[in-house]
Design brief:
This protein has 128 residues and is an alpha+beta fold. The chain is built from six helices and five strands; from the N terminus they run αααααβββββα. The protein has helices spanning 5-13, 16-21, 23-26, 30-39, 42-53, 119-126, and strands at residues 67-74, 77-91, 94-100, 105-107, 115-116.
Length: 128
């Protein structure tokens, strides 16, 4: 679906009130548009819109370079290990796995079970 001429005109004019009238077509709220517009050029917003509509935009659970936290058994004791994310693999439209610093592969299905995006999430599960 192409952006209507009204959307293009509003983007070019940088008039967010006009853009609010067509926000249903864009399927995002005007509050989101205002926050994005304050930090991102409108041309980039248009590219992201097209990428999402064409299936080229995916939301990832974390980013390369971040840390994730895994609950492991070591010497009969459960401990939390921090893992540095090196790569994120997607097969088709599905998250497949995460490659971490030691070359270890973290299978996507373990997220939220034994692997967590924050230390506090892992700690909370560990102490249940």
């Amino acid at each position: 679906m192409e952006i209507s001429q009204g959307c293009v005109d509003a983007l070019e004019a940088k008039n967010l009130d006009e853009l609010a009238e067509v926000s249903d077509e864009l399927a995002i709220t005007i509050q989101t548009l205002r926050s994005w517009a304050s930090t991102m050029p409108l041309e980039k917003l248009e590219r992201l819109y097209h990428a999402e509509k064409e299936g080229r935009l995916r939301e990832l659970p974390t980013k390369v370079g971040a840390f994730i936290y895994q609950i492991k058994n070591e010497n009969g004791e459960k401990v939390i290990k921090s893992l540095h994310v090196k790569a994120i693999n997607i097969v088709g439209e599905t998250l497949s796995d995460i490659i971490v610093d030691r070359g270890e592969t973290i299978v996507a299905e373990t997220l939220g079970k034994t692997v967590f995006l924050t230390y506090n999430e892992a700690k909370q599960v560990l102490h249940c």
